[in-house]
Design brief:
The chain is an all-alpha fold. It has ten helices and two strands, in the order ααααααααβααβ. It comes from Flagellimonas aquimarina.
């Protein structure tokens, strides 16, 4: 394997371990074993487990955002695009490898000293919130910035609750409940047809 391939292979191997077992429960030796590489090779790509975690969070977030944008773009304008995040989450839940939100799972394991990882998770959540604001702006006519933030913030909170609770209860009812509540956020708005 070439250097970029090895780098990606380490991230993918660690990603599977972090997402399934948790950040704190996954050791460097386990990542090395799963990757099938030498310790020196791992450390030539990443200085620390924290750096691997940041690469993992970035890979998961970028992949999710790309999937969400594609999912939204394939939906008919209006209510269908506004609710697309819940439909994508339902599909993600049906995947046998669903373990909830990678960012929130990692956040729950952080110590107060791990500000770098916390900053990455916060940045990613803000990116999602901003994207949801774009979706709201594209699908609701004559909407103020304050109303856009209120609706996109509500969708964001319903989504985060749904992903966490569906993992907690090992059931998809939180996704359906959040999806059914979300239209109340824009019930009095002029939704594009």
């Amino acid at each position: 394997m070439q250097r970029p391939e090895i780098h990606q292979h380490i991230i993918t191997s660690a990603s599977n371990l972090f997402y399934t077992n948790g950040y704190n429960s996954t050791g460097i030796n386990e990542i090395i074993s799963k990757s099938g590489i030498a310790k020196a090779t791992l450390y030539s790509h990443f200085k620390s487990k924290e750096d691997i975690c940041i690469a993992y969070l970035k890979q998961r977030h970028d992949s999710f955002l790309e999937s969400l944008k594609s999912y939204v773009s394939k939906r008919k304008k209006g209510k269908n695009q506004l609710l697309a995040i819940f439909d994508l989450l339902r599909d993600m839940y049906r995947d046998e490898d669903f373990h909830g939100c990678w960012g929130l799972k990692t956040l729950g394991e952080l110590s107060p000293k791990q500000k770098k990882v916390l900053g990455v998770i916060q940045k990613q959540k803000k990116e999602l919130l901003l994207y949801l604001g774009e979706v709201v702006g594209d699908n609701i006519s004559n909407i103020s910035k304050a109303e856009t933030e209120k609706i996109s913030g509500g969708i964001y909170l319903l989504y985060d609750s749904a992903i966490t609770e569906s993992h907690l209860f090992k059931n998809d009812w939180p996704i359906y409940m959040s999806r059914s509540i979300a239209p109340l956020l824009f019930a009095n708005s002029e939704v594009v047809q």
